[in-house]
Write a structure and sequence with these properties.
This protein has about 160 residues and is α+β, with helices and mostly antiparallel strands. Helices cover about 30% and strands about 35% of the residues. It folds into two domains: about 5-80, K homology (KH) domain (GMP Synthetase, Chain A, domain 3); about 90-150, Roll (SH3 type barrels). The chain contains three helices and eight strands. The strands form two sheets. It has a five-stranded antiparallel sheet. β5 and β6 form a beta hairpin.
Length: about 160
């Protein structure tokens, strides 16, 4: 995160914690939070075991709006939605939960052969490592080295 002030990073972490506490209090998991560069647009992706519907998104949106008002958080637009069929995998538990699915992911720094982007069958998790069957065979990636990952929908 070159060029990003440490104060912004702390502020962002506090905001994410506030969002997670609010959503979890309502029975939802926060899958991901996206913020525009100046924090004016906030996207929150939620999930629960039996899926998400429009009412769920409205409930979380209404509650977050009230919490942001109390906390004096200034923003222009809040969007709350399900993670979708190409859902992001942002926590180690997500990689365990979606074992058996096709995924695509990007490493923070290039790996073997200067490669950063991978696609393959998610085999599961061992410790802090993610196991993926790629064209080169089963490979092990440290969770901390994965920048972004998504489930690849199959139709």
């Amino acid at each position: 995160m070159m060029g990003v002030s440490p104060i912004f990073c702390l502020w962002r972490m506090d905001l994410i914690k506030l969002i997670e506490q609010t959503a979890e209090g309502l029975g939802y998991e926060v899958v991901d939070v996206e913020m525009s560069p100046r924090g004016r647009l906030l996207r929150v992706f939620i999930d629960k075991e039996d899926g998400i519907n429009v009412e769920d998104c409205a409930d979380v949106s209404n509650q977050l709006t009230r919490v942001f008002m109390v906390e004096n958080f200034d923003y222009d637009r809040l969007e709350v939605s399900s993670p979708g069929i190409d859902r992001p995998l942002t926590k180690l538990a997500h990689f365990a939960r979606f074992a058996g699915e096709q995924i695509q992911f990007k490493l923070r720094v290039p790996g073997v052969g200067n490669q950063r982007n991978y696609k393959g069958l998610l085999r599961g998790v061992e410790g802090d490592d993610v196991l993926v069957e790629t064209d080169a065979g089963e490979q092990r990636f440290a969770f901390a080295d994965i920048e972004k990952a998504r489930v690849v929908p199959t139709f």
